[in-house]
Write a structure and sequence with these properties.
single chain, 2 helices, alpha+beta
Length: about 130
């Protein structure tokens, strides 16, 4: 099961980073997504990536401006993700961790090869949204 943690620093307060990361209504900045919607009961988010793959996310825990965690499942993979937020020197350091495994041998290999790349893309998109370098 690949587990990938990537850290990033954003030169803005935790509240601003938190909102961009956790508020689906502002996720237009994510270049990897075509669509974001919630289920009828509001308990799960469904994202559709640029390849058309739908992934369901269910929030499992959160502490505003400090931590959130979610479980995820798609046709290809399942697992969890979390983000830890640290106020640091007038900005915010975030640790993004994805612990995801593929459902087939091929998908497991692809995840091992692509998870770090996907996290870096996410961080670059987020930096553009926040207006920081």
């Amino acid at each position: 099961m690949p587990r990938q943690t990537t850290e990033a620093f954003f030169d803005c307060p935790p509240e601003k980073v938190w909102r961009a990361v956790t508020e689906p209504s502002v996720w237009g900045w994510r270049s990897d997504l075509r669509r974001v919607r919630s289920t009828r009961d509001g308990r799960q988010l469904i994202t559709q990536d640029e390849d058309g793959v739908a992934t369901g996310f269910r929030l499992t825990a959160f502490a505003p401006y400090r931590w959130y965690a979610a479980e995820l499942q798609s046709r290809d993979a399942e697992g969890s993700c979390q983000a830890l937020f640290f106020a640091e020197g007038g900005g915010t350091r975030v640790e993004f961790t994805a612990d995801i495994h593929g459902k087939t041998a091929k998908q497991k290999l692809l995840l091992r090869l692509q998870l770090g790349k996907r996290q870096r893309r996410y961080i670059e998109d987020l930096k553009r949204e926040l207006g920081v370098s």
